[in-house]
Amino acid sequence: MKIQNGYVHLVKTALSDFRRNKVRTILTSLGIMIGVYSVVLLIALGLGLKNYIEGQFNSMGANLIMILPGSGFTGEGGAGFGGQGTVGGVSFDERDLNTLERISEIDYIVPIVMKGASIEGDSDKKFGYVMGINDDAFKLMNVEMEYGTEFTKTDIQAATKVSVIGYTLAEKLYGNPSDALGKTVRVNDQRFKIVGVAKKKGDQQADGALYVPFRTTYASINPDKKFWAIYLGIKSDDILPTVKAKAEEALLKRYKADDFAVTEQSELLNSINQIFGIINMVLIAIGSISLLVGGVGIMNIMYATVTERTKEIGIRRAVGATQNDILQQFLTESLMLSIFGGILGLLFASLSVFAIRTFFPASVNLLAVLVSFIVPSAIGVFFGVFPARRAAKLSPIEAIRYE
């Protein structure tokens, strides 16, 4: 009970000093608060990016094989839809589609062409993504119609200038998405009649896309008639290894092994998770610089506090306080300042993440919470021990006589 009362007394003494110096207390904790805020927010954004990519793949179903250029991760396209080729890789064409169609175990084949472009409606113009696909892509990407219909195989074969517009893009161009139906949009001097408006998916890229028959893009959007990637849908995951082997064998007749990658969705997700593990470590290291600066700030303030309270320390020593009592007092103040800053940092970061979640799947995980409590505590002890030791070693007589 005596020990417990001692800790309670230390906390009350620290709080009393904080109340006397409110501005200094807030400014001292500000450095730790900014550091924790930076680390937690960076972790949340990194986790959000990982969640976003996993959501993209999961929405396509489990029985999926992706044929990507090069390693599938290099070049400007990365592992997403947007690249038109990669360093050391190839761009696919219809000849490859015809080759892969001979594999009997494949349920459907989806070529992917994607390009960022200015999409012009009746009176407005917005940036969006033009996706050249076939009719099977709607099933692959779980794109359903809110209004109208999808384009068909006949539209693909005839290169009809029709399109399905994403819900958000329709909203931006026409106000009410239903008003987009039957209207014409223009991309690179090509005009496309809108035959369908897709349901909102909550995916910024998909909701802001204009889906068109891939052969229609051959005019001005994709004059090289190349695909960035080809996706293969199969009926059962039991035949995944068989289909992969057959796809590789078919493509090796035309390309070298290093020119393309045939990968399962699970393999790609595992690789992405490894990459994001490294990215998170780098983000934490960057954010920790702010925490280090905050720790130095605490040490400077605590040194100044020791100087200001030299006489008080001398009086306490004179009436029986030990060096250990003084050391504990100043360490407690340093620790409480750090924890206070950590809690504020976590609170503001959580509020920021809550706001970001309306358009991006950022989230605060257990690691971020631990960082906001453990790291500030460690910093408070580490940077507080030096001024606390200085205070504890002051001679009682000299401290009382200090002016």
Give descriptors for this structure:
single chain, 403 residues, alpha+beta, 2 domains, 10 strands, elongated
* Shape type: elongated
Task: Write down the domain tally.
Answer: 2
Number of strands: 10
Structural class: alpha+beta
Percent strand equals 15-25%
Largest sheet: 10 strands, mixed
Our Rg estimate from Cα atoms comes to: 31 Å
- What is the helix/strand order? HHEHEEHEHEHEEHEEHEHHHHH
Count of helix runs: 13
Separation, N- and C-terminal Cα atoms:
38 Å
Q: Which residue ranges are poorly predicted, with pLDDT under 50 across at least 5 consecutive positions? A: 73-88
- The oligomerization state is single chain
Instruction: Compute the average pLDDT.
Output: 80
**Fraction in helix:** 40-55%
Domain ABC3 transporter permease C-terminal: 285-396
Membrane topology: Multi-pass membrane protein
Protein name: ABC transporter, permease protein
InterPro entries: ABC3_permease_C (IPR003838), MacB_PCD (IPR025857), Macrolide_Exporter_MacB (IPR050250)
Secondary structure topology:
Elements: H1 2-20, H2 22-58, E1 64-69, H3 94-100, E2 106-120, E3 125-133, H4 137-140, E4 145-148, H5 153-158, E5 162-165, H6 167-174, E6 184-187, E7 190-198, H7 204-207, E8 209-213, E9 229-234, H8 240-251, E10 260-264, H9 265-308, H10 310-318, H11 323-356, H12 366-392, H13 396-400
Parallel strand pairs: 3-8, 5-7
Antiparallel strand pairs: 1-9, 1-10, 2-3, 2-9, 4-7, 5-8, 6-7
Subcellular location: Cell membrane
Membrane topology: Multi-pass membrane protein
Domain ABC3 transporter permease C-terminal: 285-396
